[in-house]
Amino acid sequence: MFDNKEQFKKAFLSKLEMSVGKSFEETSPQDQYHVLGNMIREYISTNWIKTNQVYHSTEAKQVYYLSIEFLLGRIMGSNILNLGIGDVVEEGLRDLGISLDDLESNEPDSALGNGGLGRLAACFMDSLASLDLPGHGCGIRYKHGLFEQKIVNGVQVEYPELWLQNGQVWEVRKSDLSVEVPFWGKVESFEDEQGRLRFRHRDAEPIMAVPYDIPVVGYQTETVNTLRLWNAEPANVPFHDDIMRYKRETEMVSEFLYPDDAEDSGKILRLKQQYFLVRASLNSILNSFRKKQKDIRELPNYVSIHINDTHPVLAIPELMRILLDEEMLPWEEAWDITVQTISYTNHTTLSEALEKWPVRLFQPLLPRIYMIVEEINERFCKELWERYPGQWQRIEDMAIIAHDQVKMAHLALVGTHSTNGVAYLHTEILKKREMNNFYEIFPERFNNKTNGITHRRWLMKSNPALTGLITESIGDKWKVEPPLLKELEHYKDDAAFLEQLEKVKHENKVKLAERIFQQNQIKVNLDSIFDVQVKRLHAYKRQLLNVLHIMYLYNRMKEDPSFRPHPRTFIFGAKASPGYYYAKKIIKLINTVAEKVNNDKTTNDYLKVVFLENYRVSLAEEIFPAAEVSEQISTASKEASGTGNMKFMMNGALTIGTMDGANVEIFERVGKDNIFIFGMTSEEVMNYQANGGYHSSEYYMLDRRIHEAVNQLVNGFFPNTNGMFDVIYDSLLIENDQYFVLRDFDSYVKTQEKVSNAYQDKKGWNKSSVVNIANSGFFSSDRTITEYANDIWHVKPVNSPIIKA
Ligand code: GL2
């Protein structure tokens, strides 16, 4: 049905009429989207079945990627691209008077994630399939993904996200593969016929995990992998004292991504979600393995289980439970298999993000799992004692259970054979500082896997004009071998190419400007520099530094009419966690500054501020292609990697950033002339933190620009904001500016001046842009996934020809 345009049109029209029962003229874009989606899914299904058959029969090792988040975004466009049916579909629809872009915009984003970590998981799924690797995603089918953000009077308001409301065309419910997940109850010991001590979980309250499978199509290959998302539903229990409570509590498990965990009830819910994901996934993994009739001791040769951050870390005690209680292996053997099978990625060094669960909640909810964690802890502490006799403090610091809390990261470090960081610098910080104690014991387990992004979505799909230009110049092999983008460097002095590149950027800026006008009714200057900071709102990411710089530019222009920098449009997009008061204030501040400067006729030819509401994957796809400056300004040592930085680079934006996360590796690749680095190094930050010596008030007192902008937060400069920004003012001055915003201010301003100056030489700027694109191939997630496959998982491609056979 996708072989040629005429066939496609015929199939599309007939399916449209059959499935919605309307004549073509009466159908809505929603109807059309659903029909096209269903056609594509049907088209995929032959290869999906074949791939699964091969995976069932092959001896090849399989990898299972467990993640509490998968931030997929829209699925249709990526499938069309990967299947290579874009031309047929686009032309066929055009004949019918339908634009494919418009039709795609009817698809809600699958927003089962918050930010980088969840988007990384989605990029990895795309790379696994595209590289013909047998990789399966395991996650949760949240009824509501990340909230929808509306900005009302400059303030973030959260609405529930409704991606399932109109039905999901990409998923297939497989209720026959449902798994029971038990909570609560108690553990009984008993002696079996052979006189062995055994355990059974009694009086548990089971809930049902029902899988929904989403096909993951590889690029130009017949491999179609599976992302399995588990839905929580009531189990068929014979009797229940309070059936309504049971139903409600059960369904809550897959209701929301990251329920607020300030209260105990929220903590229990999160822990339930984590065990739910792990129990259901491991059950299904082990079922597939058992069908191959191999000895269970062979598990690590056939199966690799990867835990994306600590959220799925209960996979460790759960696999132990299966091996001990179901397979009846002795502890040592079970432990060996578990450690060999599971691997772990750490995504942050922020201590507040390292999960800890109170024993008083953990133990009653998961009694058997808790017993196992206790045993793991005891054995580990014994080893520590033998290694470090008398060093109580060290042992306490490293224990898995301490101070009535279960430390999930410690469990992950002890119970897996591999711990990786997500950028070179981050891994070094883990080894030398944050997890140095563990590195000393298990040095061979630590390794780095610098993050990546799928160039298919973030360049080929979202930036067709640039994709076309690159392909015209260097051919299209780079699409399957992104490091070949390097060949673009030959064009960095080619005037015609640079002109073309500028034209592409300009067209993309026009499109974004239209979007900005449509959403915000702000007219932006197309010759202004599009300077973009899009990412989660967090103090360490320092959106505040960006805002203070904007305030300074504004103040200086007001004061000095001869000071008129190159026009800039500062574009922001960010969601703040609903309970994160400070972050929400920063959003309000950005919008307040926008209101002020955008409406000041004396300066607004030079300065515009735009906050695009509801930042999400599909909006990001419109933003990156139009960006010229990429703001990566986190406090050094705090951003584990960043992945937005890579998307900007790949689309030709120049980075202004600190030496943090993967910025360091971008710097190494493009060279100092093609990136704008400023601010403290991670060493300096960490030394200050260890030894003190930073006094933010000194910067406030001595730097007039800082003094003025910081005062403006609280002195009525912004009308009707009485007391509104006190918390920001206090964070800078009373709390001594934890993220060194004021300390880096001067360096940031100077570097921004360099950015402006560099932009005056448009040819030089475009040249730098080429160097960025040309060196972005390294940051394809295909490279990252190849490294995981070779170094951690030891899985090999199961080639398309095998599937064809
Ligand atoms: C994060 C890091 O903060 C971010 O720097 C990194 O790029 C991603 C992916 O590795 O992981 N850690 C985390 O908890 N979230 C991230 O985005 N949410």
TrEMBL record:
<dbReference type="InterPro" id="IPR035090">
    <property type="entry name" value="Pyridoxal_P_attach_site"/>
</dbReference>
<keyword id="KW-0119">Carbohydrate metabolism</keyword>
<keyword id="KW-0021">Allosteric enzyme</keyword>
<keyword id="KW-0328">Glycosyltransferase</keyword>
<dbReference type="InterPro" id="IPR011833">
    <property type="entry name" value="Glycg_phsphrylas"/>
</dbReference>
<keyword id="KW-0663">Pyridoxal phosphate</keyword>
<keyword id="KW-0808">Transferase</keyword>
<dbReference type="GO" id="GO:0005737">
    <property type="term" value="C:cytoplasm"/>
</dbReference>
<dbReference type="GO" id="GO:0005980">
    <property type="term" value="P:glycogen catabolic process"/>
</dbReference>
<feature type="modified residue" description="N6-(pyridoxal phosphate)lysine">
    <location>
        <position position="647"/>
    </location>
</feature>
<dbReference type="InterPro" id="IPR000811">
    <property type="entry name" value="Glyco_trans_35"/>
</dbReference>
<comment type="similarity">
    <text>Belongs to the glycogen phosphorylase family.</text>
</comment>
<comment type="function">
    <text>Phosphorylase is an important allosteric enzyme in carbohydrate metabolism. Enzymes from different sources differ in their regulatory mechanisms and in their natural substrates. However, all known phosphorylases share catalytic and structural properties.</text>
</comment>
<dbReference type="Pfam" id="PF00343">
    <property type="entry name" value="Phosphorylase"/>
</dbReference>
<comment type="function">
    <text>Allosteric enzyme that catalyzes the rate-limiting step in glycogen catabolism, the phosphorolytic cleavage of glycogen to produce glucose-1-phosphate, and plays a central role in maintaining cellular and organismal glucose homeostasis.</text>
</comment>
<protein>
    <recommendedName>
        <fullName>Alpha-1,4 glucan phosphorylase</fullName>
        <ecNumber>2.4.1.1</ecNumber>
    </recommendedName>
</protein>
<dbReference type="GO" id="GO:0030170">
    <property type="term" value="F:pyridoxal phosphate binding"/>
</dbReference>
<dbReference type="GO" id="GO:0008184">
    <property type="term" value="F:glycogen phosphorylase activity"/>
</dbReference>
